[in-house]
Amino acid sequence: MKKSWGRWAWLAAGTFVIVLIFYNLSRNPEWRNFRWDRLWHSIIGASPGYLLLAILSVYLSFLVRAARWQFFMRPIKAASLWVLYVGQILGFSSIFLVGRPGELVRPAYIAKKENVPMSSMIAVWLLERVFDTIAMVILFAAAIYSEPVNPDTPQGVFALHEMHRWGHVLFGLTGLLILGLVFFRLKAARMTALALKLFAFLPERALGAFARFLRSFVEGLSVIRDWKGLAGSVVTTAVLWAINTTMFWLTFKSFRHHMGHLPWLAAGLTLFCAALGLLVQLPGVGGGYQVGIILSLTEIFNIKAEPATGAGILVWIIQLVPTLVLGLIFLIHEGLSIRKLEAIAEEEEKAVTLGGI
Asked: What pLDDT score does 284 carry?
């Protein structure tokens, strides 16, 4: 019951943030004159060819993710690319259906299919988050420093100025994160002991969970000592985020006006803003993700409200529908159901929360 109330509280908070954003947008003169017919025409007028390429890029991104997990798992086991690909599809389908708890479906499915400990797959999942964060910051820095477009509104100029300021901070923090990860891996035993000593004030159960988390994280970082695995992980991460950016860019290209001429790095900056919106993502609905896309297009790239909203909707559909379609096919093939996926997600979330991995 407490878990259920916690989830509803999180959904309510996310909904409130999204409503607040749209309320503030409604006070903008352009948004007060928003026309639904123009939104509809911008969506139905999108080029099907570019949208088809965008859909194919979504499927390709899952294949690259699977290949990256192969490199991450090199110190543990030579995993099947097919199992990893199915795991990516089922995992992201679960995120769309049940929200953030669905993240744990991927490591749980792969651990079961590859007969490896769940703790090692949690370690890989954590490492994936680290690599993705570093890639996103580098993409963000490349986009703002290349200045793909110069905003001509006071809001846009201010937003770009703030992005430049935070870009320096994020880039510095990312450099420290990389150095910290390397140092932590090379001095894993000493750093783990130090961390446990610093948090010795925690209750015994919590301290045990923290110790298991540290062991899992060190296990995931073992790829750093495997230079072939590390190189493969870095290359596949770069390719993955290039594909993700290209999916946004192809969607923008499908529109027959100013947005169709945005440069590739502008799509990368929009992707970064969308990723920030994931903090208030709602299961099956999205929300913050689309808001991040719309705000970046309107406030930074001077795109009108209707086509910007259309782009946010199309990006969401392009990612959601193909993933769910293939996910349902794999569910049938694996003899699973949506209810079982949700049960897996809840079970693994509880295990991680209680330190049972």
From this structure: 44
CA angle at 208 for the pair 203 and 211, rounded to the nearest 5°: 125
Does pLDDT of 347 surpass 70?
Answer: no
Beta bridge partners of 282: 286
Q: Where are the domains of the chain?
A: 55-354
For residues 45 and 319, what is the distance between their CA atoms, to the nearest angstrom?
Answer: 19
CA pseudo-torsion sign 121, 174, 146, 314: positive
Asked if residue 50 lies in contact with residue 251, where contact means CB atoms within 8 angstroms, the answer is yes
Q: Which of the four pLDDT bands, split at 50, 70 and 90, describes residue 46?
A: confident
Q: Which burial class, exposed, middle or buried, applies to 47 when counting CB atoms under 10 A from its CB (0-12, 13-18, 19+)? A: middle
Most confidently predicted of 50-54, 155-159, 252-256 = 50-54
Nearest alpha carbon to residue 107 among 98, 94, 120: 120
Residue of 175, 179, 174, 186 lying closest to 218 (CA atoms): 186
Sign (positive or negative) of CA dihedral 247, 236, 124, 126: negative
Angstrom distance (rounded) from CA 274 to CA 269: 9
Structure letter (DSSP) for residue 223? G
Per-residue pLDDT tens digits for 205-236: 777 777 777 776 776 666 666 677 778 888 99
